[in-house]
Design goal:
This protein has four helices and six strands, in the order H-H-H-H-E-E-E-E-E-E. It is of the alpha+beta class and 155 residues long.
Length: 155
Amino acid sequence: MDEPTRPPDRTNRALVVVLAVIAAIVLVALAVIMFRGGPTELDPASPEGVVQQYSEAVIDGDEPAGMEMLSKRLVTNCAKMGIWTGNGIRVTLLSSAQRETSATVSVLIRISYGGDPFGPSESESRQSFELVKEQGEWKIDKAPFELALCEGLYS
């Protein structure tokens, strides 16, 4: 004797719909995380953009790129220090003041060191870059010690 076939259970359909909605939410969340943008790229011809590019070059260990952004005075007298970035360094733009031939860009530098039993150690300081205009381009004339490529670059 064959058992009569029963219509599909409504609870099974509801479960499938709920699982599909959850899967869709998870996929959307993953897409947002994976495709969110990085830091805003500043105008590379502006003092802020030069500081951003220089900081990225130093943090990435690209000494030649960083040297290209230094003033002639510094390049001529550069006693290279080597690059130190610690375990993690983050530079955040705070403000800038631009004059005709010079500019000051203030940043917040946060450095993370190795962890200890209470979590990672961090230091944070407000620093400034001094820039000069040479042949129509902004060049770094002073930088914070944490991002200095040459002795004499920092004050």
